[in-house]
Amino acid sequence: MGIAQTLAWASSYYLPAMLAAPMAAELDVPTPAVYAAFSGAMVVSALVGPWAGQAIDRRGGRVVLVGTSLTFAFGLAMLGLAQGLWTMVAAWLVIGAAMGAGLYEAAFSSLVRLYGQHARGAITGITLIAGFASTVGWPLSAWMDTQFGWRNACLGWAGIHLLIGLPLNAWLPKLPAHAKPERLAAADPAQAVSSASPSPAPSAPRSGYATALLAFVFAATWFISTAMATHLPRMLEAAGATLAAAVAAGALIGPAQVAGRVLEFGLLRRVHPLLSARLAAVAHPVGVAMLLTAGPAMAPVFAILHGAGNGILTIAKGTLPLVLFGAQGYGARQGWLMMPARFAQALSPLLFGFALDAWGANALWLSGAIGLAACGALMLLRAQHKPDSQVSVLHQER
Fold first, then answer.
1. GO terms for molecular function, please (predicted)?
2. In terms of DSSP H, where are the helices of 116-251?
3. 205-391: which CATH topology?
4. Domain ranges, ordered by start, for the chain
């Protein structure tokens, strides 16, 4: 699943950075039009997410992820064959549907469907592998574009999904025949904990309060991460760094993200995910304060803090809903929780770009304030105690 996720991210989220310019040139459209179509894809992914999560709750992840491998391949083939603006937009919308049902949220939901409350380690492991998606995707897309052109690069990614991603997702374990939601109570009680029936709306006011806080946290942190991914070199130059220093600092973000995930997999796995998420959320504001007060010499420190925090928060997007609300209905709940984040992600490049144009490096105070607000929301959340029956089942499993 980690390899399949690497392919999915590399051929969707990280594709425009390498192919938007040659795509726009040949199709005779402005380069921003390609990014606007990509933003439309993220909006579609937000709308598809809850449906995909509910499908995983009912049927498990294998069927859904196999379907998204086919959808990715179809959308990328459409993109490679696009003849103008509207066929290009249509292709990105198809890719957006695959993103909504085939990126991290779907992978996390599939793992929770299989492992229940014990999915945290597997979630971390997948993000460790897929953390190299840009490392794999950017050079491979650039090489295919240079050697064969951007159209064949898209067709090449489509073929990779069919030849590698599809078989890997098809090898996911099938759910047991008795794992129907309506039969779980009469079947294996341990399976009842790990299964996820169609998610009911939270009935307790506290659950609704926690859901709203968590949705805000995810939207805020995805806004920041997408803004930095889009504008980091330009933003560091505005803060006084040279272009070479800005590029060098930006190169530290990927390794820092992986290092943060290794830290989560090792030391931080012994603490509650809320604590690790709070530490991660405050990393970006601390980096902002250091960069804007001490100057461009702090650019590498800022990049490391931002990258490490972002890496841990990626895992928190999978583990926090699990520990706060449990495994039941996880997939659909994850889809609804991430819907505001997908919209924030779609708007982030445009809005932060406007802020950067208007305020220069001081636009970082905006991202820092959003990060502090996310940390404050996490401070308001409290760990939920497991029901006695669930504690008993987990004790039996141990």
1. transmembrane transporter activity
2. 120-130, 133-148, 150-160, 166-170, 189-194, 205-238, 243-250
3. Growth Hormone; Chain: A; (1.20.1250)
4. 2-174, 205-391
* Rounded CA separation 357/351 (Å): 10
pTM: 0.75
What φ, ψ does residue 20 adopt, rounded to 5°?
-60, -45
Nearest residue to 4 via CA among 48, 68, 54: 68
Structure tokens at 315: 């895992």
Tens place of pLDDT for every residue, the chain, 398 residues?
A: 889 999 998 898 888 878 888 999 999 998 888 888 988 898 898 888 888 888 888 888 888 999 999 999 999 999 999 999 999 999 999 999 999 888 888 888 888 888 877 877 788 888 878 877 877 887 888 899 989 999 999 999 999 999 999 999 998 887 654 454 433 333 333 343 334 333 344 444 557 788 889 899 999 998 998 888 777 777 888 888 888 888 788 778 878 888 888 887 777 777 788 888 898 999 999 999 999 999 888 999 999 999 889 888 888 888 888 888 877 888 778 878 888 888 888 888 778 888 888 898 899 999 999 999 999 999 988 765 444 334 333 333 33
Instruction: Tell me how far apart the alpha carbons of residues 253 and 237 are, in angstroms, rounded to a whole number.
Output: 16
Same fold, 2-174 and 205-391: yes
